[in-house]
């Protein structure tokens, strides 16, 4: 059982480490962190838009006087739910891995397919409607101002926050190319970014699942008590083990169906997710299986089709009401 509730806002982890949580942890609702020692501060990630980031910074400032000035920011990866609020801390030093910096630079040059769909969602059918529903309509995506990291590193970097040591390790490509772990060894606390989704189906878009499993294995070797995941409630190493099992399970189950020639959409519905009941964003199974099929050698999945399927699944599930426990599987798999 977690010692912390999963409620929106700041949670004090002790010793100058804080988490900022955003339930339900699904699309766009990411977590962030604050590390403080004396009057020195390091912010781990910003949020999906300026209003949410402003709200977070205000709550940090009212709880922690030193947070009036954010010295440094680490972006754990390039996705906008961890970076799009950078404009509000633009006078801080912003640090990211080189791969994250490159991804953010590309997005700032307009190469962001998801953003393109969200801002023109009416032209993208069911896929557009889905992305509008889960992100575009909930976040201020129009006013995105790209503020890039001012400093980057290849694989590892050591920082100090006052007297506190903070270790950055690039562990991607896992969930994204540049995933970075932010580890405070003395306090046995880890800010994992999206290497860990806790009780949320992980977003697996164009990623290397085998590497992601290895990244989980690496995290499992760390001496940490508390993990602030990129999405979902505050966790510990058990959640990393569970997610590792999730990734491996999908890899194995998708492979069986790929080898049997089962189409992606059918395979996604055929793989039982009973063990992950109640996790947010269940419909991501379509995107996950499509990406796994691609990693097995199938042609790149038509992402719009997968998003459309995901949207339909989510709508059916919602129509069933919050008490819905069935998976909308056409049938359950015997194995
Ligand atoms: Zn992400």
From TrEMBL:
GO terms for biological process: antibiotic catabolic process. It comes from Azospirillum griseum. The lineage of its organism: Bacteria, Pseudomonadati, Pseudomonadota, Alphaproteobacteria, Rhodospirillales. One of its GO terms (molecular function) is hydrolase activity. Keywords: Hydrolase. It holds the Pfam family Lactamase_B. PANTHER family: ACYL-COENZYME A THIOESTERASE MBLAC2, METALLO-BETA-LACTAMASE DOMAIN-CONTAINING. Belongs to the metallo-beta-lactamase superfamily. Class-B beta-lactamase family. The keyword Hydrolase applies. This is MBL fold metallo-hydrolase. The keyword Hydrolase applies. Residues 29-231 form the Metallo-beta-lactamase domain.
């Amino acid at each position: 059982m977690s010692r912390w509730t999963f409620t929106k806002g700041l949670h004090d982890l002790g010793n100058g480490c804080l988490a900022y949580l955003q339930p339900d942890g699904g699309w766009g609702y990411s977590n962030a962190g604050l590390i403080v020692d004396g009057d020195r501060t390091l912010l781990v990630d910003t949020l999906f838009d300026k209003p949410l980031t402003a709200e977070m910074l205000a709550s940090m400032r009212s709880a922690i006087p030193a947070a009036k000035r954010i010295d440094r920011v680490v972006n754990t990866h390039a996705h906008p739910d961890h970076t799009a609020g950078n404009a509000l801390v633009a006078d801080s030093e912003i640090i990211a891995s080189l791969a994250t910096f490159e991804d953010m630079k590309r997005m700032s040059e307009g190469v962001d397919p998801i953003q393109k769909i969200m801002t023109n969602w009416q032209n993208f059918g069911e896929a557009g409607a889905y992305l509008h529903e889960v992100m575009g309509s909930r976040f201020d995506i129009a006013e995105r101002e790209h503020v890039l990291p001012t400093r980057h590193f290849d694989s590892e970097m050591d920082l100090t926050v006052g007297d506190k040591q903070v270790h950055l390790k690039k562990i991607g490509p896992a969930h994204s190319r540049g995933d970075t772990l932010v580890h405070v060894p003395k306090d046995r606390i880890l800010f994992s970014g999206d290497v860990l989704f806790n009780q949320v189906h992980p977003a697996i878009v164009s990623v290397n699942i085998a590497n992601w499993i290895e990244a989980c294995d690496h995290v499992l070797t760390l001496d940490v008590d508390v993990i602030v995941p990129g999405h979902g409630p505050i966790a510990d190493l058990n959640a990393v083990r569970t997610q590792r099992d999730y990734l491996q399970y999908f890899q194995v189950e998708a492979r069986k169906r790929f080898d049997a020639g089962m189409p992606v959409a059918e395979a996604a519905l055929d793989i039982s997710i009973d063990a992950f009941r109640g996790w947010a964003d269940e419909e991501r199974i379509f995107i996950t299986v499509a990406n796994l099929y691609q990693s097995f050698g199938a042609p790149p999945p038509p992402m719009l089709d997968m998003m459309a399927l995901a949207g339909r699944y989510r709508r059916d599930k919602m129509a069933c009401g919050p008490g819905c426990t069935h998976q909308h599987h056409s049938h359950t798999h015997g194995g």
